[in-house]
Amino acid sequence: MAANPLVEMVNITRNFGGVHALKGVDLSVFAGEVVALLGHNGAGKSVLAQILSGVYPPTSGEIKVDGSPVHFHSPNDARRHGIETIYQTLALADNLDAPSNFFLGRELRTSLGFLDKRRMAEEAAAALVDLNPNFTDIERPVRQMSGGQRQAIAIARAIHFNVRVLIMDEPTAALGPHETAQVAALIQRLRDQGIGILLISHDVRDVMRLSDRIVVLKNGELVGEVRAEESDEDEVVEMIIRGRKLAPADGDGP
Amino acid sequence: MSEAVLPRRRVHVTDVVTPIWLVLVVVIVIAALISDRFLSPGNVAAVLQQGVITGIVALGMTVVLVGGEFDLSTGATVMMAAVVALLLGPDGGVGIAVAIAVPLLIGAGIGAVNGLAVYRAGANSIVATIGMQFLVIGAVLALVSGQHVRADAIGETFTALTHARPLGVPLPVFVFAALVAALAIVMSQTVFGRHIYAIGGDVEAATRAGIPVARIGIATYVISGVLAATSGVLIASLVGHLDPTAIGGYEFPALTAVVLGGTSLSGGVGRPADTAGAILVIAVITNVMTILNYQYPIQLLVQGMVLTGAVAFYSWRRGGA
Question: Is B11 an 8 Å CB contact of chain A?
Answer without folding.
Answer: no
